[in-house]
Every structure is written in structure tokens, then in C-alpha cells.
Amino acid sequence: MSGSHAAHSGKSEPAATAQGKPSEAVMGTYARQDVVFARGEGSWLYTTSGDKYLDFGSGVAVNALGHAHPRLVAALTEQAQKLWHTSNLYRVEGQEALAGQLTELTFAERIFFCNSGAEACEGAIKVARRYQYVSGHPERWRIITFRGAFHGRTLATLAAGGNDKYLEGFGPEADGFDHVTFGDHEGLETAIGPETAAIMVEPIQGEGGIRSIPKQCLIGLRELCDKHGLLLVFDEVQTGVGRTGKLFAHEWAGITPDVMAIAKGLGGGFPVGAVLATAEAAKGMTPGTHGSTFGGNPLAMSVAREVIAIVSEPEFLDAVQARALRLKQGLARLKDLYPDLVEDLRGEGLLTGLKLKARVQPAQVVKAATAEKLLLVGAGDNTVRVMPPLNVTDADLAEGVERLSRALAHVSKSLS
Description:
Blueprint: H1 3-9, E1 37-41, E2 44-47, E3 52-55, H2 58-61, H3 70-80, H4 93-105, E4 110-114, H5 117-134, E5 142-146, H6 155-161, H7 164-167, E6 177-180, H8 185-191, E7 196-201, E8 204-205, E9 211-212, H9 215-228, E10 231-235, E11 259-262, E12 273-277, H10 298-311, H11 316-337, E13 342-348, E14 351-356, H12 362-371, E15 374-375, E16 377-379, E17 383-386, H13 394-415
Parallel strand pairs: 3-15, 5-6, 5-7, 7-10, 10-11
Antiparallel strand pairs: 1-2, 2-3, 4-12, 8-9, 11-12, 13-14, 14-17, 16-17
Helix pairs in contact: 3-10, 4-10, 11-13, 12-13
């Protein structure tokens, strides 16, 4: 661009590339750390400058099988050489195959494929409302959700979460959601009214601070929905695909939902989400009621099919549970070593968190861990998430705990 044209257009000089300072051309919706990763392998990420980081954030529970898993690379490469996109105007072989895998492994009988967790949650909301409509109850369209939940960043899913910080500045909050305080059983039943269509809940609140709903409470939700003719909708975007040591977190309670939103780990790093439902719950989802241009494309299906094949292999989830035990033992040791910083341990499987004392903020721990070349993720309720890949090695687990220990020591010293 010539200098004169730049002046007339009001544009600044070209933004820096990733090799230099952060680019101003990228919209500033993230408080990004100033590090650029060039490649990954297993539980490790390598920067453009050659530094090596241990990834215990897993792309916020997305990289379920670590980075560059050979079976996922092979599946994607093979499909990329054949067909990328045809649209949902035609049958997609990969969708039918993956749907077959998922229906065989879960409660679901009908599946809709999309691209993200937010889309999956939006789809689940539509399934619940549409079900009541075609069942002769068009007045039932409201969804009960829980404070501290996070269901995505679309206008509807933000309203479902009800977090004022995320809603600020985006106009009137989308109607149709009734928020109940986490753990308020009496308030939950009181919130059910003639317009209630469903209850939507995360078995473990991820963004909300790794807050688990006890098994007996999940059983109670199932009973409550059955009693009042409501659909039970689970958001397993973060908890699903083996993250808790079961294929899906609700399995620990021995109950099933009517509708479930999944994403994140489903694609092992490739964008893909899905809405799973019983045939009864999905009976209103007829042609024209929902759609997605890219959802269920052949590339996404090829990778997701391989992820599900791996995670559902015999002994895989047993190994996840064994790794989770080792990780929790290591984190428990850190809680004992740093009682001035760590209040409690949270989570299930390899979805774990450190609930911090009020004197320290998650950002401080995340920053100190990054200095030790360990990647963690902050969360609500003053919690830091520790989420290594499901196939993390014992050696990498031990290394991660050691690096976290050094990070906590640094934070403790800085506060003394």
C-alpha cells in the first residue's frame, strides 16, 4: 500500500508478524500471553524460538490425545487428500459412521454435528424447546440453568450462563433462562413453572471453577425432570470424551440425560461439536428446524471418528483413571506444601483444579507456571485448572507437578 493511500484510508502501518511484537490486526478479545507455538508433540509444545513447554491446559481440554497424535494426523491427512466439504445438502458418510459409534456407546439415538461447544449448547437448547412445542406445550420454552455455569459466548448461551461480566455491553439479555444458585435444591424445584421446558447443567462446572455436582444430585435432577415432564440437558463440552475417566461424566452417577452437548475433546484439536439426544427428545428436529454449513464436514468427521475409536479402546479409560490418581496424589502433596496458597483440590479424572486462598489470584499462579514453562488455565471461583492430555505419560505427570511446585514456591515467596 502506498503511503498516500494509507493516509487517506486512515490505516496504520502493517502490523507486526508473530515473529515480532503482537499484531494489532487481530481483534483484542483475548488477554494473550506473549508466546507463539510452532509445533507440538505429545504433552509438549515448542515455540517459534525453540523453547519447550509442558501443556497441562490441553487447549482448554481440547487436545485430549496431546499434540500431533499419529493416528489423528493419519486420519486427517488421508481424508484431506480425498474430500473436504460437500455441505449437508447430501449424505455425509463420515457423519453416519461417527453417529453410529456414538449411539452405540451412549444413551443417544439421534445426533446433530456442528463446529463448537457454543453451537452444541445452542442446538441443545433448540432441541429442548422444540420438543415441548411438538409435544403440545408451546408455552414451555424456558430453561433452568445454574449460576457459575458457562455454556458459550453466543448471545443465547451467554444468557444461559448468566454471568454479568460476559453479558455487559451486548444489549438486553436473551430471555428464556431462569438461573438457580449452585447447590440450592429448594430454589431449583421452586424455579420450575408452567413455562419450564428443561434443566440444563454441567456435571462439573469447568469455567466456573471445577465445581462438581454430587452424584446424588445428578440422580435427583433426573428424577425431578421425570416428575415434571422436563428434558434433562447435559453440557459435557468440557467434561466429555474421557476427560473424567468415563467416556462422559454423567456415567459416574449411573443416569442419562435426554439431550447432551459435546465438543472440545471430540475432535482432539480439530473443531467439531455435536448434539446428542434420544429419539423422543429429538422428534421435533425435522428438516429446516436447524442446520450448519460446516458442521459434520468430512475432515472433522475423520478425526473425531479416530478420537472416539481410541478413547473407547479397552483399558484406555482405566489408564486415564490411573493417571488421574497419580496426578491427584501429586497435587495433594502440593496442597500440603503450600497451605498458604491452596485451599482445596477439585475435579474428577484429568479435569482437576486447585482452589486458591483469597490472598492469591489464578493469574498469579498461571503466570508463575508459564515462567516454569508449564501451561495451566485459570477458572472462576478463584481456581486454576490442571488438565493434561488423557494419554500423558507418568514421567510428564511427575514433571508437571514439579514445575507447578516451583511456580507455587515463587508465588508464596512473592506474597511473603
